[in-house]
Design goal:
8 helices, alpha+beta, homotetramer
Chain lengths: ~240, ~240, ~240, ~240
């Protein structure tokens, strides 16, 4: 894929994020990576979606050095880069402040898996990181957030759990490209919302049983998947 | 009715479901049946509503054999077929993951009948199935969900209760055709939402009294109905 | 005002109600009266807003006899007529199933006056009727609802409280014409929503003090009103 | 800046407020000041946003004397003027009845700072005034609200906390011009909403730690800010 194509895709994914209603003002950002060139395209910092153009997308290398673009990259760039370095199969990352997923992040709680809609997308609870330490806040904050996420996934498979809640902050999601990262954000907000409403009806609710989780997750993902039109289904495995 | 007309109607009902805001991405599906030919038209699996065309609608017989169409039918097809086999008067089935109805499903609770808006559409509490057993999950899952719904209606009349919540999953609804099935989905989401808000104000609320339920349900449905413009009213009896 | 003008106004008020998002499907209805001719124009029963035309508006006299129109009038017509008979200054009535006002109705609780937005429109708590008795349900139900509302206003001034919640049912509102009745419905839904959210934050909240209620209500309504552009303000007194 | 330019900007900010969905009907108002001429442009009272034109914007001096315009200025004008007098650097003020910020105002509670979205905009809890006293209600009410706000900021810096909740009433916000005042209103509603949802998940939640608040607020505001494109960022310091 050419770099201009990558920038175009990242631009489109950012616009789609905005149109989905998950972000307002200059909140949120989406990036995509060209693995062969180790270059990441990302939204510029503090630019409103209404004014964003494909030319504004900034290109950085995996160490964060700007390679192309007049504007500063997103202030969350180092978090994205850490994810690309640690999760070697992902091709896109999205970050939002969407209301319901952020509400769970602010409550510092994982989103329990209460139903099959959740299980269709996420293999179990969507985890929440621990609260970032003062020393991590004071030095290289955005990089430390990335490391905090990676640490949260020490015993989890990022290919089957494509989102995380950063405590006191908000969600990050990823996928095989920028488009899928946004799609996961949209699904995450939907399940965060429905989970909240379910808890209002019954605050004692717990995760669905493992057999039901397996059934739904695996009918859409993995080797025996039979949901959708075969390889046509982008929410399949990475 | 010709098969092409049925496919057109099922296509339109799927689009209406999408436009109503009850489904996002590829969630949900609507089907319709031609009883004379025992053929069911249904949304293809995993296709986004934005790209759906009437040609994509898949035709299957009541045993689930594909009769027409290039794409795979909805992964929930066997659930639809079980409903068509057991509920002999229905002509359409809809399934959504709409937020509020799904919240009740995930809480594994029937939606209590708290007011006349509910009573106008549903004759009593909207029932919730029991949680599906492990053996039903492991074999012919989608068929078993259909059977679970049918079992929930053993002592209920599906002609006066056109919706059900599948525990840990979401709602199914039906009607005399695909269009009415969607209309019931929309009404269900509305009453699920208002019931939730009512419970926030007073968690101890109970069903309205039978006399009021009867009055509202029967002024719209049944022999002495006087709501609407007589036979003009699609929400009448099946 | 000519009868065709009245019908046009009632048609427009019904359409505005629909566009405001307070009603879906065929829910709700708005009427207006010509006091000089004692004729009431009202939405036909069970007709969807999308298909409604000015010609469909039905004309009835104050005893409910149809004077003009091919369709049946709203099934709630007798409730409207009782309000016109008892509240001699009103010119329009609206009925909705809007989510938040209906949630309070279903909870059988008056909406407490928790802030100045409420006080700007309604002089105190928006009352909720008692639950209708079985004998009233069994005979002339819609008329009895009207009487129940009127009874709820025995010691209240309908000119300063232009809405009521019918227990287990939903809100009715009124004003000097159909347009104002709809405007009050919109304001009612807004304050019902905000009051619910306030109660989530603090379930022990009580009405604001009388001095603040008086200040806000009376700066918009009554003799010394100074809100708006004088007689220009439709939300003034009847 | 010419007076006609100021009126145009205030008109646009009012329209933006309306388009953002934060106000309905005639609720809310935005003003802007020309500090060199000590003239304030403000929305006229009780005029609906749909009918508002730039010509309708009223011009008053800092003592509230009308200088230009046919219509009465907003009934909240004296509150705006007190803010302009006390907060010498601000250039615009906005007042809304937006649902979630008003819910907190009605609950008479500051909005706790539960996450980084909040910290990006507001340096700590968004304060809530005390309930206005009877003597302040009875004389020069709108001026007294302004004084109440100013009193609430005795030990706070209005340049780093650009919004306040007036108890039992609703939010006021400000900024370097009318546009920023509206932008702060929009952000305030967003964080009020997410904070409410977080409290539903865990009612015992408390403010985030100071180190995290400082990190986020100061990366967008103040001397060492590195969010956005440098001086391009309107949400910087006043």
């Amino acid at each position: 894929m050419s770099i201009s194509k990558l920038k175009e895709e990242v631009y489109k994914a950012n616009i789609r994020l905005y149109q989905s209603g998950l972000v307002i003002s200059t909140f949120g950002n989406v990036s995509g990576i060209d693995r062969s060139k180790s270059l990441v395209a990302i939204k510029p910092s503090g630019v409103s979606y209404k004014k964003l153009t494909p030319k504004d997308i900034v290109l950085v290398d995996l160490e964060g050095k700007k390679v192309e673009g007049k504007l500063n990259p997103s202030s969350d760039t180092k978090t994205h880069l850490e994810l690309y370095r640690a999760f070697s199969d992902i091709g896109g990352v999205a970050h939002t402040h969407s209301n319901y997923a952020t509400a769970w992040s602010q409550a510092r709680k994982a989103i329990p898996c209460l139903g099959t809609t959740h299980a269709d997308y996420f293999y179990g609870e969507v985890p929440c990181t621990r609260v970032i330490s003062n020393s991590c806040i004071s030095k290289d904050y955005e990089l430390r957030i990335g490391e905090l996420i990676v640490d949260t996934f020490k015993s989890k498979d990022y290919r089957h759990m494509k989102a995380v809640l950063v405590a006191c902050h908000g969600p990050f999601s990823w996928g095989e490209d920028a488009e899928e990262a946004v799609e996961v954000s949209v699904a995450l907000e939907e399940i965060a919302k429905t989970a909240l409403y379910s808890m209002v009806i019954d605050p004692a609710l717990d995760n669905i049983k493992k057999s039901l989780l397996d059934k739904h997750y695996l009918r859409k993902h993995g080797r025996g998947a039979y949901y959708g039109q075969k390889k046509d289904n982008k929410t399949g495995q990475l």
